[in-house]
Amino acid sequence: MRPDLVIFDCDGVLVDSEGPSNQVMVDDLAQYGLTLTLEEAMDLFVGGTIKGVAEKSRTLGADLPNDWVAQIYDKIYARLRAGIDPIPGVIDVLDRLDAAGIPYCVASNGSEEKMDITLGQTGIAARVAGRRFSAHTHRVAKPDPDLFLIAARKMGVAPNKTVVIEDSASGALAAQRAGMRCYGYAPYDDGANLTQHGAQIFHDM
Q1: Of 7, 51, 80, 147, which is least packed with CB atoms within 10 Å of its CB?
Q2: Nearest 10 degrees: CA dihedral of 84, 38, 108, 118?
């Protein structure tokens, strides 16, 4: 089925920012009594929100200060400003969607500021100008389906004519709840965390 709209997640789908962002959190959380490997952090935190990271870290024993969320945002943004690449092959995907006349947008649990940094560096920001949907702006985060539903409504496309590209279980679940077909990008594993929510797995853009 040819979709009328493709909704991309941002981190880990358009830009290669998950590893650097999570490494910043691993290094920082170690100062507060929580030791994690990068792989463990990715398993725990990818697809969530920074507020959710703080809550989960505290349940795991981290003694975080009250302003930790603001502090870690500053550290993550500084790292991302130092340099981020697009996901290999994704620029070609966008080129082909443009050539086929299929519209696309971005829906992310990240902030507008974070998307400014990552999408701006990679040249993608101009391609999605006016078509970015942030959980911070709309006050609803995946796995709630409303962020995807808002994006589809603003783009004038029905959910069942929309395809979502995601790399996290929370994103795949949001797509499933929204009644949207989901393709799960799993470059490093079999994508079992995505298939449990109905995503069709692919490993290379």
Answers
A1: 51
A2: -10
Nearest to 141 by CA among 173, 186, 114: 173
The string of pLDDT tens digits covering residues 149-200 is 999 999 999 999 999 999 999 999 999 999 999 999 999 899 999 999 999 9
Q: What is the dihedral of CA 22, 46, 111, 30, to 10 degrees?
A: -30
8 Å CB contact between 141 and 147: yes
- Report the run of H or E that residue 62 belongs to, with start and end: none
DSSP-derived secondary structure letter, 64: -
- pTM for the structure as a whole: 0.90
What whole-number distance in Å separates Cα of residue 197 and Cα of residue 67? 34
Cα dist. 28→31, 71, 111, 166 in Å?
6, 10, 20, 27
Give all strands of the β-sheet with 200-202 in edge-to-edge order: 132-134, 104-108, 5-8, 162-166, 181-185, 200-202
The structure tokens 């995505």 sit at 194
Cα dihedral 154, 160, 165, 166 sign: positive
